[in-house]
Amino acid sequence: MAVHYWTSLFLLLSCLFSISNASAGDADPDYRTCISECEISGCVGQLCFPQCNSSSDGGPWYIQEPLYLQWKKWGCQGDCRYQCMVNRERERETLGQAPVKYHGKWPFKRVLGIQEPASVAFSVLNLAMHFHGWLSFFITLYYKLPLKQDKSADVDLTERLDYSSAVAVLGFSLILAILRTFDIRVEATRVMVSAPILAFVTTHILYINFYKLDYGWNMIVCMAMGVTQLFLWARWAAVSSHPSNWKLWVVVIAGGLAMLLEIYDFPPYEGYFDAHSIWHAATIPLTILWWSFIRDDAEFRTSSLLKKTKTKAK
């Protein structure tokens, strides 16, 4: 079943947004000097950060930070980087220079401690749409689709978890896409198709977690699996007589176009709305349509199965 495709496409694009740490902004000598001075003095200009104060025994600031500040990544170093970035971007704007990235990210404006507020807001809406989709799907599955008479038919740590779960879901959904597209029913063949993909995905997850969190390589892996699925579902839609094919076509085509928002990266407008956040917004209606297709697909397959069962009984 195509249940995991759209979720995996979302995760694919999240992988595409992951980039290298080396950026023009953090290589700027003025920015680096500002960071060094802030980590010593705890201040950027007239703005000082209490969490940058060293302990009485002279221990380094990063050991003394409360755990909740370390977890939020807005400790001394985070605040120094942010304020130095803000000051440097003001200087660049005065000189008529375009924004640049710092540590792999555009210079966003914080809102309530959130570095990318627009992306977070649209992500929450996407999550709400997925929750609604899963809920409506299971209601359809357990209460509206009887398979048998009187019976119902048979849900840095955060970064690694993000990439690991993305790759895992992409790998699993790639297997489903292959099995569904080519209508592979023989169990031995299913194992032969699934085993190498599962082996590769497992190896990749171990690699990025215990050897090197390589953003570039992770992006290539995610892109390869995601684009492959896109073409597989397009092929399935082209040859299938499914009554809701048009919904799948809209999702595939519009999803592919939305991917351009990730490829065409641009600085955040007014410090909030960049290509990634706009992509999140664009995928909200596609999520609704995708789950609508999933429910239609469950009904169609159940109806076809019941017809076959009745035909055999005769």
Automatic annotation (TrEMBL):
PANTHER family: PER1-RELATED, POST-GPI ATTACHMENT TO PROTEINS FACTOR 3. Belongs to the PGAP3 family. One of its GO terms (biological process) is GPI anchor biosynthetic process. The chain crosses the membrane at residues 161-179, 191-210, 216-234, 246-264, 276-294. It comes from Arabidopsis lyrata subsp. lyrata. GO terms for molecular function: hydrolase activity, acting on ester bonds. It is a multi-pass membrane protein. Involved in the lipid remodeling steps of GPI-anchor maturation. The keyword Membrane applies. It is found in: Endomembrane system; Golgi apparatus membrane. This is Post-GPI attachment to proteins factor 3. The keyword Transmembrane applies. Keywords: Golgi apparatus, GPI-anchor biosynthesis, Membrane, Signal, Transmembrane, Transmembrane helix.
